Amino acid sequence: GAVVSQHPSRVICKSGTSVKIECRSLDFQATTMFWYRQFPKQSLMLMATSNEGSKATYEQGVEKDKFLINHASLTLSTLTVTSAHPEDSSFYICSARGQGSPRMGNNEQFFGPGTRLTVL
Amino acid sequence: SQQGEEDPQALSIQEGENATMNCSYKTSINNLQWYRQNSGRGLVHLILIRSNEREKHSGRLRVTLDTSKKSSSLLITASRAADTASYFCATALQTGANSKLTFGKGITLSVRP
To answer: What phi and psi, each to the nearest 5 degrees, are found at residue B19?
Structure first.
């Protein structure tokens, strides 16, 4: 139980285009979802936190108009990288925390497999 | 800002040996968690230790927490080649709906067969 999926796993796009990444909790209700980005051989940096039905809370230095987050249902959150540029190339990882599984009692976050974005 | 700092940054050992990784943090925490990440993949939760706990075991994993020193260690006993991965500690300052994790820089563990 507590599986999180991401789609797509890899995406290559041209500079200036927008890219949408989906994050789904498959067998539990994700009341909170987190979006991270990770540069090669570096740590995960939290970009934003979203609660279902509410606006996302962005970390300092993350442009909310650049990285649009929607958490419209208890099983789906999307991250849209608008007008992507090569410096946005990174590994984007979502995680979810919620209810509906015995493992939720620990306040544990469950991570998706990540999406590799390459902007040419 | 980075809360957790692991050391060493890279560790190479022979299969069968034990691997010890350390994590230090700066502020008071509610809990500390260790994760594993295989290259280019997502994170796998290994173990969570709460601030009022000193040691936890899970299979070949042993985690200690010293809140007075603001440090934790992850011990992997009888390592296997499949343990090769990056390991991250992550701290949670509080619990509940507002809780979020702050990750350290990670340790790259290589286990030679």
So the answer is: -120, 130
A110 touches chain B (CB under 8 A): yes
Please provide residue B81's backbone torsions phi and psi, each rounded to the nearest 5 degrees.
-55, -35
pLDDT tens digits for range B61-75 = 999 999 999 999 999
Nearest to A32 by CA among A58, A13, A54: A54
A107 near B CB under 8 A: yes
**Burial tier of B73 (Cβ tally within 10 Å: 0-12, 13-18, 19+):** middle
- A95 close to B (CB below 8 A): yes
Is beta strand A19-25 parallel, antiparallel or unpaired with respect to A76-81? antiparallel
Quote the CA–CA distance of B30 and B90 in Å, as a whole number: 11
Nearest to B93 by CA among B43, B65, B36, B51: B51
Q: Are A46 and A56 in contact (CB under 8 A)?
A: no
Instruction: Tell if the CB–CB gap between B101 and A109 is shorter than 8 Å.
Output: yes
Q: Which two tokens stand for residue B96?
A: 């509940």
Of A33, A26, A21, give the one whose Cα is nearest residue A81: A21
With residue B73 as reference, give the H or E element that holds it: strand B71-76
Nearest chain B residue to A48 by CA: give it.
Answer: B100
Question: pLDDT, tens digit, for every residue of A89-107?
Answer: 999 999 998 865 555 555 6
